[in-house]
Amino acid sequence: MATYLRPATLSEALANLDVDARNPPANPLDRLGILAGATDFFPAAAARQAWFQPTPANILDISAIAELRGVTTGPDGVRIGALATWTDVINSALPPAFDALKQASRQVGGVQIQNRGTLAGNLCNASPAADGVPPLLALDAEVELVSAAGSRRLPLADFILSNRRTALRPDELMVAIHVPKPADSERSLFLKLGARAYLVISIASAAVNLACDEAGRITRARIAAGACSAAPQRLPELERRLAGLPIADAAQAVDPGVLAPLSPIDDIRASAGYRLAAVETLLRQAFDALGRPLERAA
Amino acid sequence: MTMHHRPAQEAILLTVNGQEQRIIAPPATRLSEVLRDHLGLTGTKVGCDAGDCGACTISLDGRQVCACLVPVAQAAGQAIQTIEGLSGTATGRQLQASFANHGAAQCGICTPGMLMAAADLLAQNASPSRAEVMDALGGVLCRCTGYEKIVDAVVAWNLPAGEPAGGSGSIGRRIPKLDGASRIDGTALYGADAAPAGPLWLRAIRSPHAKARFTLGDLDAWAAARPGITRVFSAKDVPGHNSFGVYPDLKDQPVFAEGHVRYRGEAIAGIVGEKAAVEAITLDDLPITWHPEAPATGISAGLAAAPALHAIRPDNVLTRGLVERGDPEAAFAAAAFTAEGRYGTAFVEHAYIEPEAGYALRKGDRVEVFACTQATTMDRDEVARVLGLAKEQVTVLASACGGGFGGKLDVSLQPMIAVAAWHLAGAPIRCTYSRIESMASTTKRHPAEVFARASCDAAGRLVSFEMEADFNTGAYASWGPTVASRVPVHATGPYKVPHVRNRTRAIYTNETPAGAFRGFGIPQAAIAQESLYDTLAEKAGIDRLEFRLINALRRGDATPSGQVLEASAGLAECLERLKPGWQALLADAESFNRRTTRARRGVGIACMWYGIGNTSMSNPSTMRLTLDAAGKITFWNGAVDIGQGSTTVLGQIAADALGAPVGLLHSVIGDTDKTFDAGKTSASRQTFVSGKAAEKAGAALRAEILRLTNAGPDAVIRFGNPLLVIDGGRETTLDPASLSPLPDGQVLEGIGSFDPPTTPLDAQGQGVPYATYGFGAQVASLDVDTALGTVKVRKIIAAHDVGRAVNPMLVEGQIHGGIAQGLGLALMEEFIPGRTENLHDYLIPTFGDMPEIEVILVEDAEPLGPSGAKGVGEPALIPTAPAIFSAVRHAVGVIPRRAPLLPHRLWELLRAGQS
């Protein structure tokens, strides 16, 4: 018998997850599935349905839990509630370090998807090409996971394990994404490469956050690449090389050596070799774009 | 476990278009399904059920969303507005009028979604820029219009209307579509939108394997044990022939496969029952045993496959085509310059936004089929044969058709639902394909592997041409023979070439059947031919446009099939009129490239020709125009309007021939009981063939009226009740009620028929395959990002000789849409069975992918056509991909030989070019 639960409180939702986790059904497909904006749920269901495969029937709809909504700024940083949509992020007043996240939000699906899909859902879906992940990695985002037993915070990089795999336990719910307060001077850019203009899954993507001193020297670089490995990755070697460089020279720090954390695949959208070359180009392009206005200002 | 327990179906309260609605449905039901099935609001269209196409866009709580992605439980308490609600608002009506006046709706299936997205934008920004319109509507796909006229309509949404309909003398005017209102306000009934009460639903069981043997268990016992399931139909239940196919001698595709399947997606049975029950069935639950085998994938595997896919073709070669003229070998040996190359293209999906849908109902010993189609009479004949009935026992009613492009020329669900309806008399049997089912099971554009060689003399005059082209026709014949016969006739392109040998083969494989798709193989061949001509122009040191002008077929020239063109060959004029734009774009590219390194700008050109109508085969059309006792004029028109506008264009022609304002015509479209056979809506033939029939029908009715009033040929008829006929100074009234009625109650009729004159092709492919040809040429300007291999097409100038533009706005719409599909073919579209079966992995152009388009209409009148008109539907697509490839080559110096030119493929070409 299909179950559809739509609790109004977090505690009720967690209690339901707890029951399900303690009494796991024989078929994993019968697990209580968490539903928010439903923008991944229905397409996956359509794909299974078309080939007579069973679809998930037991659903925990968290959309009525008011405390999970909204994007709020506090003294320590920004909290993106589990129900915050791409549109909520686009419409929030956020510092320039979030520009990349906003740019990614504008390129997820069409406006219809942006109005419904949630960033938390994007993280939990854990697609290698998830456009929300690289900007949040570059912001050192943490995810807050709550269960009836308590709560924990994980760095995003530790939450997404690989293609479609996360550290979320069956009794847990992601309630928020937390972004520590970035430097006021930090600027960011997200570049997405796809084979068409709108409604496109990334072939490769790059999120770049750079903080500079008044002389235009990079004080801190946080860089992530998407769709080039089972989970989007930060590029620590590149970040290390950039520290202290004048921003005008940043593009020169990019070479194939800094892309070692990436392990792209050949698929219908592109070849692995192309992806590596493309992300290298995107990174240089991002540094150039971020460098230009600073030079003008200086 | 009490927390888990909740009634599955408690009432949900919705506010839809301001009205409270109480819904009983499972909470996870898609809102789109609730709106359509529970509330009858079928203006919200379902194109993909995955948020990929935006056809179901509605407003939820003041924001555009895809109704297919909203669980109905989440919509409770929020304001829902659909197209039906928008139509009641002032903004909605203004937007709709603007869509009509700009020709922004063709088939109309995406239009409600476009309007809802546009209304969402206008609520925030009443004067949006073009870029803002594209961003806001970018989540909705359109396959017909190329988007430009949609942007025009939204930007100008509150400006006064253009030229209204009405008055006499409609040919040449930009008249809004006669059937436009229903395709803009959500009231047009597409295949999934209508059925008699109390239907059962059929769901086809399809093979997940490309090649397999299978056995079916006891399906009757299985069905009997399942509540809500009525019956399962399979091959043994087909009362007539368990086969279909568009050629009378090639009915090689079973309605339900018998024992083995030849492609992934092939139907083996149909489950019939209540909708929820048939949707809940899973493969594990079914008594089917599969034995998968290694499939033949691709042309060479098809040629090698043993045993053969079909016993009638032991070598897996479905058909061969040949056109041979002169002595190509000798000519190649003597030529000054020669170019050759191998080219390849992929399966291309039609991606009409309306998946196949319809219903069938048995009434006594007759069966009625309502479905989306491009060919009502062919559908009727197929269904009658499958049921073992006389043709007269089957009625086919064309639903509004949400795009076709060749993909709805073959039957899809019609035979299956007819079989079920035959056994379950009195129950309407409905079926709606899912997007994935549509993509996996219905026909595609043929992948081609082409070798071609061309040569010219020192002055750039073409002397010889040779092509060997293999087409992957998939598991079943469909229109493979048409592709194989059309391509050799056209493969030189529209040029004088004295020595020609073009050979084609269509080859069976274990892949999706390839059939008709806008151009029947000629777009694939044109990529090769035009690329070779760029090489020859380069070798001969001649400008690429001039090279084509030197060689252009003109009036009086003989084609490779030996046909002397007697009239209407406007290619040279197209090229002359492109020259200023061509030269300006070349200068622009040169200047741009001096300033940049990473981005390289290129300009390309390509030409096309296309025979209008069937190849060397009779393809008549008959039209009827009547007057009833009250003076009402009815146009009985069997031509299915798939969005291109034949209802409007044929209406304009008939009205002008009759001498009546086009607004007075009432149209009855595509009903096999009431309308004569107009032939299929394909081969760009309706304006030319059915248009001529409509012109004759109008003239015949006019002659009847003039005869009854003793008026001369120049008399003016004022239609009304009674009619007034003014002949110079003499006025005569005609009371239609005084005339004795015809069997169907009408009092006067005019019937017109036309079958374009052709002759059979002989063994060397010589003859007159077509009565007339469309000609055209396109110039493309684009930028290549040499670091990423991406291509941004900036501008296309399209010059097409259409004979006469009966409705220039609709002709432009065809050209824009053809360019969009040509751009997709060139740059992004690749159907891979099992891999790109949805609209997020299979990419078609979106709003942001389209270039600025400038249309140049050349009117070199065709004496056989109505007012000189010929077709444009397919011609528009053919030159686009080769023009884009020509521009890429100009920009970066590599020759694209494989479509689609995905970014990584161009990047690899550039790398190979550098090393």
Low-confidence stretches of chain B: 1-7
CA distance, first residue to last residue of chain A: 66 Å
What gap, in angstroms, lies between the N and C termini of chain B? Answer: 68 Å
Strand content of chain B: 15-25%
- Structure classification of chain B: alpha+beta
Largest sheet of chain B: 7 strands, mixed
Would you tell me the structural class of the helices and strands of chain A?
alpha+beta
What's the total number of strands of chain A?
A: 14
The strands making up the biggest β-sheet of chain B line up spatially as 8-10-6-17-14-15-16
Extended strand count of chain B: 31
Oligomer: heterodimer
Number of helices of chain A: 10
Helix content of chain B: 25-40%
Beta fraction of the residues of chain A?
15-25%
Unreliable parts of chain A:
294-298
User: What order do the helices and strands of chain A follow?
Assistant: EHEHEEEHHHHHEEHEEEEEEEHH
Trace the largest sheet of chain A across and list its strands.
4-5-10-6-7
What's the alpha carbon Rg of chain B, rounded to whole Å? 28 Å
Radius of gyration of chain A: 20 Å
Task: Please explain how this structure is put together.
The complex is a heterodimer of chains A (298) and B (915). Chain A is an alpha+beta fold and 298 residues long. Chain A is 31% helix and 24% strand. Chain A contains 10 helices and 14 strands. Chain A has helices at 10-22, 41-50, 86-91, 99-106, 111-116, 119-125, 133-138, 156-159, 236-242, 272-297, and strands at residues 3-5, 33-35, 58-61, 71-74, 77-81, 142-147, 150-155, 160-162, 165-166, 173-180, 187-193, 204-212, 218-226, 233-234. In chain A, the strands form 4 sheets. In chain A, strands 4-5-10-6-7 form a 5-stranded antiparallel sheet. In chain A, strands 11-12-13-14 form a 4-stranded antiparallel sheet. The longest helix of chain A is centred in the last third of the chain and has 26 residues, at 272-297. The N and C termini of chain A lie far apart (66 Å). Residues 294-298 of chain A have low confidence and may be disordered. Chain B is an alpha+beta fold. In chain B, 29% of the residues lie in helices and 23% in strands. Chain B is built from 24 helices and 31 strands. Chain B has a 7-stranded mixed sheet. Chain B has a 5-stranded mixed sheet with strand order 2-1-5-3-4, with helices on both faces. In chain B, strand 26 (723-727) and strand 27 (730-734) form a beta hairpin. In chain B, helix 4 crosses helix 7 (148-155), helix 5 packs across helix 6 (130-137) and helix 20 runs parallel beside helix 21 (686-708). Chain B is globular and about 80 Å long. Chains A and B meet through strand 1, helix 1, helix 2, helix 5 and helix 10 of A and strand 4, helix 6, helix 15 and helix 24 of B.
